[in-house]
Amino acid sequence: MEIDTNSDFSSIDDIKQLQNQHFLSHLSYSLSHSVYYQSKFEALDLSLEDIQSIDDIHKIPVTTKEEIERHNVDFLAVSKKQIIEYVTTSGTLGDPISIALTHQDQQRLARNERRALELCQITAEDTIQITTTLDKRFMAGMAYYLGATALGASVIRSGIGDPDFQWDNIRRFEPTVLIAVPSFAYKFGNYLLSKGIDPKTTSVRKIVCIGEPIRDSNFEPNTLHQKLTELWDVTLHSTYASTEMATAFTECNEGIGGHLLPELIYVEILDDHNQPVAMGEVGEITVTPFGIEGMPLLRYKTGDLARLHTAPCLCGRNTPRLGAIEGRKGQMIKWKGTTLFPQQIENVLNHISEIDNYIIELSLDELGLDKLKVILPDHLDEYIIAQAQRLLQQRLRVNPILEQNTAAYISNEILPKGSRKPRRFVDKRELVH
Amino acid sequence: MEIDTNSDFSSIDDIKQLQNQHFLSHLSYSLSHSVYYQSKFEALDLSLEDIQSIDDIHKIPVTTKEEIERHNVDFLAVSKKQIIEYVTTSGTLGDPISIALTHQDQQRLARNERRALELCQITAEDTIQITTTLDKRFMAGMAYYLGATALGASVIRSGIGDPDFQWDNIRRFEPTVLIAVPSFAYKFGNYLLSKGIDPKTTSVRKIVCIGEPIRDSNFEPNTLHQKLTELWDVTLHSTYASTEMATAFTECNEGIGGHLLPELIYVEILDDHNQPVAMGEVGEITVTPFGIEGMPLLRYKTGDLARLHTAPCLCGRNTPRLGAIEGRKGQMIKWKGTTLFPQQIENVLNHISEIDNYIIELSLDELGLDKLKVILPDHLDEYIIAQAQRLLQQRLRVNPILEQNTAAYISNEILPKGSRKPRRFVDKRELVH
Questions:
Q1: Which range marks the domain in which residue B298 is found?
Q2: What is the arithmetic mean of pLDDT over B310-321?
Q3: Which chain B residue has the Cα nearest residue A82?
Q4: Cα separations in angstroms, A33 against A74, A249, A286, A297
């Protein structure tokens, strides 16, 4: 599989043309194979001829998570025999969605992740330790494996958690790269320190970060980023992806947003009325991933909120870049008249270096209103708690209930039994009903 | 990757010729690339010319696990850059051995497992739930994934344990095949029953069994086999493999031994003096896996004890078949003058249908002698314990100490935290020193 990555450095116009070409072929495939899009277009009296180029994409209605949930089978564009794998979304906002992959999708996934790793300047000389799982129907774990081996790098399938085993892998195979959730890399680094091993002296020189932002909306390193680079002698690369889009946005060395892979995905930033927001404004990431055979999507609203940046990157690539995730639509909290997102609370808490772990818990009170709690480890002194309260009030104008609990309780809430990805935001509103 | 499986049905002579051809090319590769075999041959004044055909294989000294442990790096036959993955053995008999794979080895692994699944008559129409892990550097998990997707079957990467999640996969994707450790499939089936779900009414029609024998040395179904087919409406296929050999021996529908894949491996059954045992006798499985690029092996003594069967199979294949594993060399127990293997104790205990779980624990007493205990669940009545004692005495002429403990203790010993494969035999002799 030879990959031409030169297009990333083409002019903005050429990139748009490349995207246009992939879009039209993807649209044509979707309309000839997906029962769901066929009926949707028919119902709207919309045809392929109405969409002459990617500039007409706004004529196509957006696709929501609820639509995929409700009409899952109709989204399938191939016969059951062509399916080689079933994966699911992590289901942070409800029941996981099932996605079916074909051979071609498996190869596309490998290509996507190989491109993402190349953006981090990872080469065939590197050894990559994957500290996320390849079990539990998790697409990302397999994407890393397929992409890294396609690149020719060496892989160690380590799996989630278990710091002793992670260390055994580092000692044994001297990986240069970790693929990790940043807060896990931080916890693991501290575990090594507690065992008398300085993470800086290990072979690890890069951490590919998933699941949590390491910069704020101005690309400034957040506290997690600062803590990680104090602990490890590494460069950090943020990466954003999801099962539905099967494509990653990955930071190059400049660290000013995750680069779009132009032959694999088109991205729009939309408001609540599905209109594009002004350039540089926050809106909902809406994707049209190209070349997907099993379950093609058109204008899928991800629920994640971010900004898009189109100015050429200092690395020389002219591909658009996605900023840090600033919130998640389904996680909007209404708290005493104020609207906010868990990510905003995380950004504030991450500024207090003593706070090494926490969860944000949302439940319903007896009146059915949102009840917001931040649970902090019980080893923290009272003045740290007071500082957190003050900062939250200053920055977000909210006073959530601050509680303390054991480190074990917090760890278990972050990574409950059977889960494959840690979460700091625990939404208990559903459970109450 | 087109696979010619016709050779399995060729005449015994043609199979031998095919093996001869693969052997000579493998030998030539090993001697030109493996530092370890180069020095070994040089030290013995042995050259390629001395080995004209596979009939001369006995001139090559055997390779032991200890040699790979001690000279791991010298076994590597490629540059570090060509390595795409590191895996390790499970380390049941000491520190895990590291094995490096190249792209070609990854493809060979896929081919091997595809062939194994085809022997079970699994096709592109099937959906396979992998209930072992793909993490923890486990070769088998990845082999199943690569082989199954190469075959065109659909895969669900489920991971180890977690019966609720396993059931969610069955409910959601209706797999026709489980890949499972038989005792887990039994436990999981009973879990379903306890939830009011009859395993017989699920979509599962085949279980590919790994890690534990389901037949005795006469190919008669053992108790585990009987219990499984009472619980599930399935056919069972035993499969034997190891990380070092990267090749599986899998039962066809006749269930009379695991078929050798002639283009991928050669097998000898040797005694303690590295001489072939008489046909049909028990000895140590010694393998020469063909076509391995990263860490090629010649005459590797696996430590596993079994018999080889060469009479043509009722399925029409003329490939030799490996009988059930009857013991493991490093697990030989000397107990009050008698020599025995944990597998023999398991075979006896598996005859008592009330005994649904147990561990065999070997430690050293204060005199440094083997101390043998069988730990049974505390819900068992006294007369069952007495029956076990009687049967062990009758069949094996041993009286191990029988103890009872909680089901939780036994489960935890079978699958301790961080392990990727269950074990019923716990050797605590090493720990004492």
A1: 1-325
A2: 96
A3: B152
A4: 10, 27, 22, 11
